[in-house]
Design goal:
This protein is an alpha+beta fold and about 700 residues long. About 65% of the residues lie in helices and about 5% in strands. It has 21 helices and eight strands. The protein has helices at about 1-35, 55-65, 85-100, 130-145, 160-170, 175-195, 200-225, 230-260, 265-290, 300-330, 355-365, 365-380, 400-410, 430-440, 470-480, 490-525, 530-555, 565-595, 600-625, 635-665, 680-690; strands at about 70-80, 110, 120-125, 155, 420-425, 445-450, 455-460, 490. Strands 2-3-1-4 form a four-stranded antiparallel beta sheet. A hairpin with a 2-residue loop joins β6 (about 445-450) and β7. The longest helix has about 35 residues, at about 490-525. It is elongated and about 90 Å long.
Length: about 700
C-alpha cells in the first residue's frame, strides 16, 4: 500500500503542472492568430448594416464599380459675418491643391449658402476603395490641406469623415478598454479578498483567457467569415474579464470553504469543483446559448456579436476551471494570506447584509414581492422618456470635426439636402431609373455616375435635410417607385433607416428565441417549470427597469440626442443571459440544500446567506467591467454599458438576492414543481412504498 499511495500522491502533484504545461502549449499555438485579430477587425458601414437591406446591397455593389467604394467628403468653409472674397479664394486654392494631390471622382464645385456665410465643396474619391487605412489617410490628407485662419472655420464632413472619426474611436478602444477593465477588476478583487497576492491569480488567468479568445475569434473569422468589429471585440474583452472573474469568485469561495474541511489543497479543490463546477458550467452554457441566439439577427453587427460573446464566455470558463485551479493548488493555502483558511477552523460567524435580507424575506415574503414589483414597474416607466432614434452625427460623445461640419451645414442650408443618396440600378434600365428619380418631388438633383459589372450609379440630392422626416419620406417613396426594377437606394441616411427597421425586426425574432432557449435550458438544469419561469420573469423585469433608468438619464442628465436602435435588443440578450447566470448560482445552492433535507424556506435563506456575498461581489465586478464602456467615445457604447451595468446591479442587490428569495419562500416546495422536490416527504414515501392488497 505504501508504494501505491506514494505513486498516487505523485500523480496528484503532477496534475497541476501538466495543466500548466498544456496552457503554455495552447498559448504558444494561439499566439500568432491572436496577434492577427486587429487585422481582420473592420468598422465599415457594411459590417454593421442589415444583411438583406437596400443600403447593404448598394455598399456591396459599389465595391464592384470601377475604383470600388467611393469615399465622400464635404468641405465646409464658414464665417459668421459672411465669407469674404479672400475666404473664397482660400477655399478655391485649397480645393485645387486637394485635387492635385488626390485622384478625385469628378471636379469639386462650390455650393454657396443663401446667407453668404458658408461655402461647401463635395469631394469624392474611389482611390481608397474598401481599404479603411487608405480611406483614413485620404481623409486626414484632406484635413491637413483644408485649414482655416483669422475667423474662417473649415470642417471636413461627409460619410467618409464620419467613418474615419468612428474608426479612430474604435481603434482607441483596445488599449484603454483593456487597461481600464484590468484596473477596475484589480481594485475590486483587492477589496473583496483583502490579500496582497490572491487577487493577482484570477486577474492573470482572465488575461490569459482574453488572449485565448482573441486567437479563437480570429479562427472563427477565417473558418466561418464571422464579422469582427470594434464593438464586438470590445464587448468580448468585457465578457472575458467580467464573466471570468465571476466564475473565479464562485470557485475561490467554495475552495476556501473546503480548505477548512479538507487538509490537502488538491483534495479541497476537487471538492470545490464538484460542488460549484456544475453551476459554473450550467451558467456559462446558458450565457453562451443566449448570446448565440443573436445569429438569428439580420443586423450584421448584432449577428457578429453573438459568436464573439460566446467565445469570450467559453474561453473564460475553460481558463477558470483548469488554469485557475492548477495555480491555486500549486500556491497552496498561503495564497490567501493574511486570511488563511486553516484546516479544521470555523469561519467567523457575522450577521451580514444577506442574513438581514433573508430574515425580512422570510418574515414578509409577499410584502417584499409586492414592493419590489411596484418599484421595478415604476422604474420601467422611464422607457417612455427614452430619446428618439440616434442620428449618425449624434453618435459621438465628444464632437469631432465631421459632426461640426454637419451642424454648420444644417444651419447654413436649412431644408436642403447636403448629403447625397446613392441609387444603384441595372445599366440597361439606368436611363429609365434616372428619369424616375429626377421626376420625384423630393429630389433636388440627380446625376449619373459610374458604370460597371452590369450596374450604374446615380447620385441623388434630396430636398430635405439629412435624416429629416422629409428626406426619410423621399427615400421610402423612391424605393417604392423603383421597386421591381432591380434598383437599390442607399447612402448614409438610407443606412440609418435600414438600421432602425432591422433592429425592430430583430427584436421580434431574437427576443422570443432567447427566452425559449434560456427557459428550456433552465428547465433541464433545475428539473422544474416554476423556478425557471420565476428566473425568466425576474430578468425581464430587470431589463425593463434598467432601460427605464436609462430613459431618466440619457437625455435629461447626459444630454444624448437619441437612443441607439440596437440598445433594446443587445441589452435584453446580455441582461437575460447574465441575469440567469446569477440565478443559476442561487438556485443551484437552494437545490443542494433541499436535496440534503432542508425545508423550502430554510433552503432558500441558507442559499442566500451562503451565496449572497459571492453573487454580490460577482455582480459588482461584472457591472464595473460594463461600466468601463461608459468612458468610451461613442454614445451607443456608453448607452449599452450604462444599461447593462445598472441592470446587473439591480439584479444583484434587489431582484436576484431579495425578490427571487422572497418568491421562493412564498412558493415553498411549489417552486420545484413538478419535480421530485415539489412533493412532501410523506407523499414521496407513500409513492415509493408498495401497498399490500388483500
Amino acid at each position: 500500500m505504501g508504494p501505491e499511495k506514494t505513486t498516487t500522491r505523485t500523480r496528484r502533484r503532477a496534475v497541476p503542472w501538466v495543466l500548466l504545461g498544456l496552457w503554455v502549449a495552447v498559448l504558444a499555438a494561439v499566439g500568432p492568430f491572436a496577434a492577427k485579430l486587429a487585422d481582420v477587425q473592420h468598422d465599415r458601414a457594411v459590417d454593421y448594416l442589415p444583411a438583406s437591406a437596400d443600403s447593404t446591397q448598394v455598399a456591396k455593389i459599389e465595391d464592384q464599380l470601377p475604383g470600388g467604394e467611393t469615399t465622400e467628403l464635404v468641405l465646409v468653409y464658414h464665417r459668421d459675418g459672411g465669407l469674404s472674397a479672400a475666404d473664397r479664394a482660400t477655399a478655391a486654392r485649397q480645393i485645387a491643391e486637394i485635387t492635385k494631390e488626390n485622384p478625385l471622382t469628378g471636379t469639386p464645385k462650390g455650393v454657396p449658402s443663401r446667407d453668404g456665410t458658408t461655402l461647401m465643396y463635395p469631394v469624392a474619391s474611389s482611390a481608397p476603395g474598401t481599404d479603411e487605412k487608405k480611406r483614413d489617410a485620404f481623409v486626414n490628407d484632406v484635413r491637413d490641406v483644408a485649414r482655416g485662419a483669422d475667423g474662417l472655420s473649415v470642417d471636413v464632413g461627409g460619410q467618409g469623415a464620419l467613418a474615419t472619426d468612428a474608426a479612430e474611436v474604435y481603434n482607441s478602444l483596445g488599449g484603454p478598454l483593456l487597461y481600464t477593465t484590468v484596473a477596475v477588476v484589480a481594485v475590486l478583487l483587492i477589496l473583496i479578498y483583502r490579500s496582497p497576492l490572491l487577487w493577482l491569480v484570477p486577474l492573470a488567468v482572465a488575461g490569459v483567457a482574453d488572449y485565448l479568445s482573441m486567437g479563437v475569434a480570429y479562427g472563427l473569422h477565417e473558418a466561418f467569415g464571422t464579422s469582427i468589429s470594434g464593438q464586438s471585440s470590445g464587448v468580448m474583452t468585457i465578457l472575458v474579464f467580467g464573466a471570468g472573474t465571476d466564475y473565479a469568485l464562485l470557485l475561490i469561495s467554495r475552495y476556501r470553504e473546503e480548505l477548512r474541511r479538507v487538509e490537502r489543497p488538491y483534495h479541497a479543490m476537487r471538492q470545490a469543483l464538484r460542488g460549484c463546477g456544475p453551476a459554473v458550467l450550467a451558467s456559462s452554457g446558458t450565457v453562451a446559448a443566449g448570446l448565440l441566439c443573436l445569429l438569428a439577427a439580420d443586423l450584421n453587427s448584432s449577428r457578429g456579436m453573438g459568436p464573439m460573446g460566446m467565445v469570450g464566455v467559453l474561453c473564460a470558463l475553460v481558463a477558470m476551471l483548469t488554469l485557475l485551479p492548477a495555480l491555486l493548488v500549486l500556491l497552496g493555502r498561503r495564497v490567501f494570506w493574511p486570511l488563511v483558511p486553516a484546516f479544521g477552523s470555523e469561519p467567523k460567524q457575522r450577521r451580514n447584509l444577506f442574513s438581514a435580507m433573508g430574515s425580512s424575506a422570510g418574515r414578509r415574503p409577499y410584502a417584499v414581492l409586492a414592493g419590489g414589483a411596484v418599484l421595478l414597474g415604476a422604474l420601467a416607466l422611464g422607457t417612455l422618456n427614452l430619446p428618439g432614434s440616434l442620428k449618425q452625427q449624434d453618435s459621438f460623445a465628444h464632437k469631432p470635426d465631421s459632426v461640426a461640419a454637419i451642424e454648420t451645414l444644417a444651419k447654413a442650408y436649412p431644408g436642403q439636402g447636403t448629403q447625397p443618396l446613392t441609387v444603384i440600378t441595372p445599366t440597361g434600365r439606368a436611363d429609365v431609373a434616372l428619369a424616375t428619380v429626377r421626376d420625384h418631388q423630393g429630389v433636388a438633383s440627380a446625376e449619373r455616375g459610374r458604370s460597371g459589372q452590369g450596374w450604374t450609379e446615380i447620385s441623388v440630392i434630396a430636398r430635405g435635410a439629412p435624416q429629416s422626416a422629409a428626406e426619410t419620406a423621399t427615400i421610402k417613396s423612391l424605393r417604392a417607385d423603383l421597386k421591381g426594377s432591380g434598383s437599390y437606394v442607399g447612402g448614409a441616411s438610407a443606412q440609418q433607416i435600414d438600421l432602425q427597421d432591422t433592429n425592430a425586426r430583430d427584436r421580434l425574432v431574437v427576443v422570443p428565441i432567447v427566452l425559449v432557449s434560456v427557459l428550456l435550458i433552465l428547465i433541464v438544469l433545475l428539473r422544474s417549470l416554476v423556478a425557471p419561469l420565476l428566473l425568466v420573469v425576474a430578468v425581464i423585469a430587470v431589463w425593463g427597469a434598467a432601460l427605464g433608468i436609462g430613459g431618466l438619464v440619457f437625455g435629461p442628465l447626459l444630454g444624448f440626442e437619441g437612443t441607439d436602435p440596437g440598445l433594446g435588443l443587445l441589452s435584453f440578450v446580455f441582461l437575460v443571459a447574465l441575469g440567469v447566470d446569477y440565478g443559476i448560482f442561487l438556485m443551484h445552492r437552494m437545490r443542494e440544500e433541499s436535496l440534503s433535507g432542508a425545508e423550502p424556506a430554510a433552503a432558500a435563506l441558507t442559499a442566500l446567506r451562503t451565496t449572497g456575498g459571492v453573487i454580490a461581489s460577482a455582480g459588482l465586478v461584472l457591472a464595473a467591467t460594463f461600466a468601463v464602456l461608459t468612458n468610451m467615445g461613442l454614445v451607443p457604447l456608453v448607452e449599452l454599458g450604462f444599461v447593462i451595468a445598472v441592470g446587473v446591479l439591480l439584479d444583484t442587490f434587489l431582484v436576484r438576492t431579495y425578490l427571487v428569495t422572497s418568491a421562493s419562500v412564498a412558493l415553498g416546495r411549489r417552486v420545484w414543481w413538478p419535480g421530485r422536490l415539489s412533493r412532501e416527504p410523506e407523499e414521496e414515501s407513500e409513492q415509493r412504498t408498495p401497498v399490500a392488497v388483500g
